[in-house]
Amino acid sequence: MEIKTSTIPKAWIKIIETVLSKGEHIENKIEMQETISTIITDPGRDMLHKRFTFNKSQMELYSAQVLSGENPTGHPYTYGGRFRIYGSSAVDQLSSMIQRLNQDPDSSRATAVLWVPEIDTVSSEVPCWTAANATIRKGYLNFRALFRSHDMFGGFPANCFMLFKMQEYIANATQSKPGLLQVVSWNPHIYLADYPTASEVIGGIA
């Protein structure tokens, strides 16, 4: 199903409503079997909501780490590491996307993959964000991300903040402006531990 709205917080509220009303109780979460495709038309505007589980400074720091490829925690993988130091050849996919778009602004081939088969088919620690694509149309940089599984309460807004910062970075490097942000979420869910707060948010207690 598709959700289209102007900002990250507005998308978040619509998603919470959708998952809680249409999801099924599976183990420790409420999960939808249907994929959610979220299109945010102005992702850089009004990016925060007072009930988000993070603040702006935390997300600015996290986004900078993703863009740099740093791994300060020593985790088995990071999104930045997969994006900037991919696989045994250590491919910098972010730079490759920018280079491709600068060489051919009409290209639809500016794509990155975060799933490493030789690692992730056997590991228990695998990335939820698995692919990204960027295109420039009419001077606007549109950015798309695919998640194999997605925590729509705590994870989605944080991911969107980070994704917009990457979108903005690529736009600046290709003399374009940030356009649409599209997030495709397989297995969208809300953990039962977050259910009370999620219910408050959509109930107007936010």
SSE series: EHEEEHHHEHEEEHEEH
By secondary-structure content and strand pairing, the structural class works out as alpha/beta
Q: Could you tell me the mean pLDDT?
A: 95
What does the largest sheet look like? 6 strands, mixed
**Helix coverage percent of residues?**
25-40%
Shape: globular
Give the amount of beta strand, in percent: 15-25%
Unreliable runs: none
Number of helices: 7
**Overall radius of gyration:** 17 Å
Protein described:
This protein has 206 residues and is an alpha/beta fold. The chain is built from seven helices and ten strands. The protein has a six-stranded mixed beta sheet. A four-stranded mixed beta sheet has the order 2-3-10-8, covered by helices on one side. A hairpin with a 2-residue loop joins β6 and β7. α1 crosses α7 and α2 crosses α6. The model has no long low-confidence stretch (mean pLDDT 95).
Summarize it.
This protein is an alpha/beta fold. It has seven helices and ten strands.
Describe the protein's topology.
Blueprint: E1 2-5, H1 8-22, E2 24-26, E3 29-31, E4 36-40, H2 56-68, H3 79-84, H4 93-103, E5 110-113, H5 117-120, E6 129-137, E7 140-147, E8 150-151, H6 155-173, E9 177-185, E10 188-191, H7 195-202
Parallel strand pairs: 1-4, 7-9, 8-10
Antiparallel strand pairs: 2-3, 3-10, 4-9, 5-6, 6-7
Helix pairs in contact: 1-7, 2-6
